[in-house]
Amino acid sequence: MSLDRSDIEKIAHLARMAVDEDRIEGYATDLSNILGLVAQMDDVETDDVTPMAHPLHMAQRLRVDEVTEVDRREAFQAIAPKVESDLYLVPKVIE
Amino acid sequence: MQWETVIGLEVHTQLATKSKIFSGASTAYGAAPNTQACNVDLAFPGVLPVLNREAVNCALKFGVAVGAEIGRRSVFARKNYFYPDLPKGYQISQFELPIVGKGELTVELENGESKVIGITRAHLEEDAGKSLHEDFHGLSGIDLNRAGTPLLEIVSEPDMRSIKEAVAYARKIHQLVVYLGICDGNMQEGSFRVDANLSIRPYGQEAFGTRTELKNINSFRFLERALNYELERQIDVVEGGGRIVQETRLYDADRDETRSMRSKEEANDYRYFPDPDLLPVEIDESLLEQIRDEMPELPGAKLQRFIQEYALGEKEAKALTASRPLADYYEAVVKAGGETKAAANWVTMELGGALNKAGLNLSDSPVSPVQMGGLLVRIADKTISGKIAKQVFEAIWNGEGDADMVIEAKGLKQITDTGAIEPVIDEIIANNPKQVEQFRAGKEKLLGFFVGQVMKATRGKANPEQVNELLLKKLKG
Fold first, then answer.
1. ipTM score here?
2. Facing A76 at nearest CB: one of B42, B54, B84
3. Which of A7, A13, A65 to substitute to test the interface with B, most B CBs within 10 Å?
4. Is pTM beyond 0.80 here?
5. Which sign does the torsion angle of CA B349, B350, B354, B357 carry?
């Protein structure tokens, strides 16, 4: 499978990343090569193999339902770019 | 052209846990902004999610209640999108292997029939924070207290064929999750939110039409109105020669209309993949066994038991089992000595009416079930009449103590002593010679007039049966 310029532009947009125009071709080649590497798996019989959800063969440990965190708003907001009325301020996202 | 409506619902229920699904921050509603958002909720570098056991238990309870296949091994996945109320840039949800698989729910319809609605799946996920778009100098304010609150998203099959069915299904899910104690059901606070998928097709056509998704619905009334509006809109578009576009539309309750959310075409490209921070969740048989054992009595079973155990009619029993707190209240009244039928009446009519009038919830009732039971005991043993009982009820409501205290303090005890009633009757007979004459001449319905006079003179305290009896004896004799 090979990716073209528009695929790269779409991936970059989904990741909200700016990509230099003159590097798009290079990314297309690199990413296509990675996909090519994975595509080798197509030659292997995997019908009876359950896909792994995680590389560790363990089950999730569960936490007791208790409130263990205290209010640290002041510390968190001290390093936020912009705060008002106890809220984090961000660029407006709706019209 | 006759159009058939096809509806499927996605219900988001906030689970009634103390702490968040992946962190130890509190989920209590109404706290000051950002005081319940810890470093996990804020997506600080290096933090790791740890799954809340209670959230898993809540999901399993729901799964067992709808007879669903339980995902013995379920997997959390990242749903990737950018929005400021989602600090990680992805929502932890479940995709391929949800914790609750296919199940079903039987819904009773208005016409008395019932219909089985398929449940496709129910999965665990985290809620996002809240964006406030008020005036912050052109910026938006973000409160992340809600971020990480556990949600169970319950997805139905597109099995509903009318708006009424959709509303009945939503109500049934609401009743069930509240009964199970896994969700407080508070719609104003956003604990129970509904997204609806609606499409139309000509009757007889098998293929589904293109659907639109309606979001932002936080009451059953709005659900009905939003669906009505959207149904009309779709019919207008199609009959006008247009084509339905698959899109998400927001319901605006103020204008009673749905509006397209301007969404870019890749908006639904969530690129799900298993979250490497979380291992698969394994549910063993012993946990499931425990969940089944601890399952509370469900609405249908409770309804049948109320009909049998308390000799109630189906309508009364239905009203009383509509919510678990109401059913519990009723049973406590009966336990406190209330006769079952009288208790049903008083709880639904008198108490229900008074709560309604005062705009109170049952949990805020000033009259406790024990007080209500005590009142009913005094009606049953004829200490007070049904009419006086209303007066006593009002006094209990106003905090004047329980029934016996009120009866004593206000001297409301029914007069059953013939010696006390007879002089009153004699006086009334003496004062109304004309009516006595008419009565004796055959105008027997005047008995009511005399009873009324006696009750008035005794301020309602005379025993009506006794008054009747004595009056008849004296008037005829």
1. 0.90
2. B42
3. A65
4. yes
5. positive
